């Protein structure tokens, strides 16, 4: 029977998701950890396409997640529209902002691109504080209404399940996108942009598309976290989250989007759910990234794949 590309990764992701949901159960704290992990994973997945596939490091993902979060907050508190509309409007607005920012910074790369987009993220946060009539100022927006789908209102555990499913679906789709002809062109563009241009592909357009995809995914994560928390403030999506999202794929494995998901699980476990290092989880995480880059440059998944190959080779020699 012919298997489709990425099926083994999908199977591993589904098994991991089921185990996490069984571990969570009715524990409210664990449910909060999983929704936080899903948010981290979605922001990291959002960075995967422009950063690891296209080679364009943007630091504005806190703003994109904030757009998704405030879309949920504004539609919930200041309109009578169905709340599900927020997960349509938020990603579209975030993608549009990413394209505009990409056009403004199209001649920048490396450190300069990271610096300018970092400043944009900071300016967006400052604007949210000043725009009290829209964003609620520094207090943000709270007491958000519940999602209503044809009379059904999901409880917290339903949100956890839905978040896990969304992460798995997006990771799988990005994995397929990575292996598609478009994904091959984007990855080649990262290493040899002139060769891609010579083949008739517009590299700037491809960059803008990758930025739009990443921003939309991050906005989905921002909306998810806002709905789960029931409120959003200008400080909800900080630069700390953006920096963590950069390292998540490196921890889990940069060769596949599933590495970003695994990296998010490890990051949350170390920084939020490991009592032994709860006061220094970020430091432990930083040291872990250093060790992984030295010992397993392709991340945990890459190292696991290497071990599997070694075991298979050893079994083949014995046979």
UniProtKB/TrEMBL annotation:
Q: What is its main location?
A: membrane
Q: Where in the cell is it found?
A: Cell membrane
Q: Which UniProt keywords apply?
A: Cell membrane, Membrane, Transmembrane, Transmembrane helix
Membrane-traversing stretches: 6-26, 38-64, 84-104, 111-129, 156-174, 208-229, 241-270, 282-304
Top-level taxon in the UniProt lineage: Bacteria
**Which InterPro entries would you find in this protein's record?**
ABC_transp_permease, LivM-like
Provide the membrane topology annotation.
Multi-pass membrane protein
Q: For this UniProt entry, which residues form the secretion signal?
A: none
Q: What is this protein called?
A: Branched-chain amino acid ABC transporter permease
Organism this protein belongs to: Dactylosporangium cerinum
